[in-house]
Every structure is written in C-alpha cells, then in structure tokens.
Amino acid sequence: MLAVYLLLVAALTGLAGRLAWLQVVQGQRLQARARATQTHPGSPLGLRRTIVDRMGQLVALDEERFTLWAHPRYFNLPGDDPQSVRPPEDVVARLAVVLALPKQQLLKTIGNRKSGIKLASGLDPDTAQRVRELGISGLDLEGYPQRIYPQGQLFANVVGFLNLERVPQAGLEQSTNRDLLRQETTFTMRRGADGTPLPDGIQAGSLFGDDLRLQLTLDARLQQVAQQALSKQVKQWSAKRGAALVIDARTGEMLALASTPTYDPNRFWSYNPGLFREWSVQDLYEPGSTFKPINLAMALQEKAIQPNGTVNDVGQLSIGGWPIFNNDHSAHGVIDFPTVLQVSSNVGMVQAMSRVKHERFWHWLHTIGIDDVPDTDLPGAVAGQLKSRNEFVSSPIEPATSAFGQGFSLTPLKLLQLHAMLANGGKLVSPHITRGLRSGDALARNGEVRGVQLLDPKITRIVINWMESVVQKGSGKGLKIPGYRIGGKTGTAQKALNGVYIPGARICSFVAVLPVEDPRYVVLVVVDEPQGGNAYGSTVAVPVAKQIVEALLVIEKIPPSQPVANKLPKAV
Which residues are tagged catalytic? Predict the structure, then answer.
C-alpha cells in the first residue's frame, strides 16, 4: 500500500509539475499557437463591381468558379471503412459523369501521383455542388472569382477584359480599374473546434457588402442592331473595318458604339491583340464631305455667307497650282448652299469658305477642338491633326482642301461630337459612355445639358434644315422614313497614309441628325476601305444608318414628325 501511495504521489506531483510547466512557462507560446489554429484570416479576393447598360442589362460581372484538386492517397467513398483507400478507377467512374469528361482522360491526368493533382478548372457553382454531393474523400474544391461578359462581343470594344491573372488589359476595365474594385477589408475570424465561425474578434464593418455597379449609357438593344448591320455591310463590301456611333446631342450620352471586327472577351486569347483597341476613338482619318455642314456653320457664324446666298460651281478650280474638282467631275452652275450639300460640291465649298479669312478659318478649326483630345471617358481618346497657324494661313491650298474636309484629320468620335454641336444648338458637349456608380438595381436618369456654347442656335438650325434636303433630294435619300424629318450628309474621302493618299483607298461615311424639328440624336457610320467601284457613302454607310435609325425610333419612342397617310390596298 505504501508503494502504491508513493507511486500515486509521484504521479500527481509529476502531473502538477507538467501542468505548471505548460501553463506558466509555455503558456503564452501555446496560447499563440492555439489562436493561430483557431483564427481564420479573411483576405480580399479582388472582387470587381458589376457593369450594366443603361437599362440594367448585365455587361460584366464576377462569378464564382472552382478548381478541382485530387489527392489519391485519401480516396474514399461514402460507406467505406475510414482507413481504406480506393483505387483511382473507382473514383473516376463516378466523377467522369459529373464533369462530363472521359474516364481515360481523368486517369491519365492522375497517373501515379498521390496528391495535389489539378483535375479541372473553371467549374461553375452547379457542377461544384454536384461534386460535393458525391461525398468522395480526397477531392478538394478551391473557389475563385472569374470575370464573365454575358453579352460576348457586343461591348468588347469599350468594356475590355481581364487576363487570366485578373489584370485589366483594355477598355473600361483598365481605365476605370479603381472604380471597379469592390471595397474589401482584411479581417480575422475565430472558429470553434469543429470549424464553426465565432463572432468573437470580428470588427464592425468587416463583412460590409459592396453592391455598387457601374452603369453605362449604352443600350444593348441598339448596340446589337448597330453591330449586326455594320458587320453585314463590312462583309458585303469586303471592307477593312467599320464603326457605328449614336449620341444624345443634348447630354453627350452615347447610346451605341459598335465596331467590327471585334472579339469575345471571354476567350480573348483566341484573337489578335490588335482588336483590343477601339479604333473609332484612337485612329485618325480625313472626314471628307461629312465635315461640310460644320464648315458652313462656321462661315455663317462669321457672316461670310448668307443663308440665301449662292456660289458658282464651275466644276474645277486651280488653287496655288493644285487642281480641285468635284467628285463627279461635273459643274453645277449657280447653286444655293442646300444644293451644295445635296450634290456634295467641293468647288462650291471652296468658294464659300474662301469668303472666310484664313486666320478666322484656322481659329474656328482650333476652337472646336480639331487638334485637342476630346473631353470623354472613352479610354485611349486622341487629338486630331491640324496644320500650324502659319502653315495654314500662308498656303492657299490648306484652307481650300479643308473646305471639303481634307488636309486635316480627326477621329470618328470627334466628328460625332461636332455634329452633336449642330444638333443641340451650338453647344460642344462631352461624349461619354458611363453614368457613374449606382447602388443595387437603381439606375440613373438622363444627364443634364452641359457644354460650351460656340455657335448661334439660329445658325445651327439653318444648317440642320440644309442637311434635311440631303435626305429628301440628295445622296442621303436611302435614309428616307415615312413621317420622319431626318437630316444627313454622306462622305467618300480619300485615305491617306503618312501624308500620301493611297490610290483607290477610300473611307465611306454618313452622319444623320433626327428629328429635324427638334434635333436630339446623331448617328455616324464609318466604313474603312470598302472594295468596288460603286463604294460610296450613299451605298455603303447609308443602309447601316437606316437600320440604326429605325431601331432608335422604336427604342426611344420618337413620334413621327408628321402624320403618315395609310395606303389602302387596291381592290382586285
């Protein structure tokens, strides 16, 4: 009994000493290890905000995806002995059905390895849930966010994309990267022995949910119409590329900005990187005849010409030793300015703009921002090219060629902005495609009218009426829509490269303004290098503009300008 007693005392003394050692000497170190085991750090995932169009349609969003890892050393099926290990063939037989992959492919991937095998990536939440329901030990699902573009190619030219490392590479994803990053904080959460989260230690606001979304001014419905019509025409005329732009001239909000060829941001690696930039915002061209209404407005503002004035189109002029002639090489005689636009008379424009002093002509081209970067949120916008004041004033050929839209260059976006200035009564508004961040499903209303007043509204009204005659009697007749008053101007300009015109290369374009009685919308279509002898603005660009205008009338619920007579079928 004494021996037993002494043994128990020794054991209790050793236990007490051990407890004292653990609690007093090693207490802090062990407590730190326990905290590290019990505490789960929550690091920011780098989630991004959703992008929607003006009607709330999803354009870009983050969705959870999963990577499936396999650890064959732990393979075990439901109901098996916990200590047993199944061969890969047994697991693959069930897994192949869920993943919709051949069994042999999965077995080949596993091979003889025992752990850390990536079987699949990019699994959607439904597939991941079906994998969980299999209850197979040795399978590990790792979640991660993936950027999805539900509209595919439709908005790729302006929205851009993220690469596989979630680094923005183009478009709004890159230019508004800071605004698109969700507000996330690093926090720590304690868990119980069974992994249950405990509220202890969570700071206020740590689990704040950021539901802001970036709203665009673009309309997916109109964008779809513009994209399809443009693609069809570019293919039909074997053109290099094309762009279609629609703007609300009062607010500067763009309703559509489509270009072709384009790409699918969900599979960006399959496309030429040259497609990742929006050329209508970044590439310069000489606008040609579509700039003639802008020039006439400036001449009216300078009082160099009168609304009822005329010019004598003799068919050909010689300026500084350079010949200038009309596109059709014909003379039209004494004509008024609406007719100058209808027949797109180069000679008439030179004579009209010759009444404007060269210094004032250059001043106006500079004032409307030909050589400035447009004030826009579109990424990559560039300034146009305009000759220096001295070069423009001292060389007679420069004002002459500028009179019919050549000798200087700009982007299609800039030309759209200038025609919006004519439509809204002379204000130079900022073209933009975003309305800002909105909470939840809330959508913003149309913006207010803002801009710099440059032209007299009475003058812009005169020019818009002249442009209507182009649709009624001139080269824009293909845009006629019963009951609606629409203005327009075609353009077929020579294409230059490094200051030299390329033989046979041309850019065909058309700009439309509607409705004439209360101008609000401007549509611009530009097609680069269409092939064929009959490739003109009227044949290449007008058909695209008509489809866009017809869709715009329906989407914006624009009433007819005048009643449309119903034509009853004749009795047989």
Answer: 289
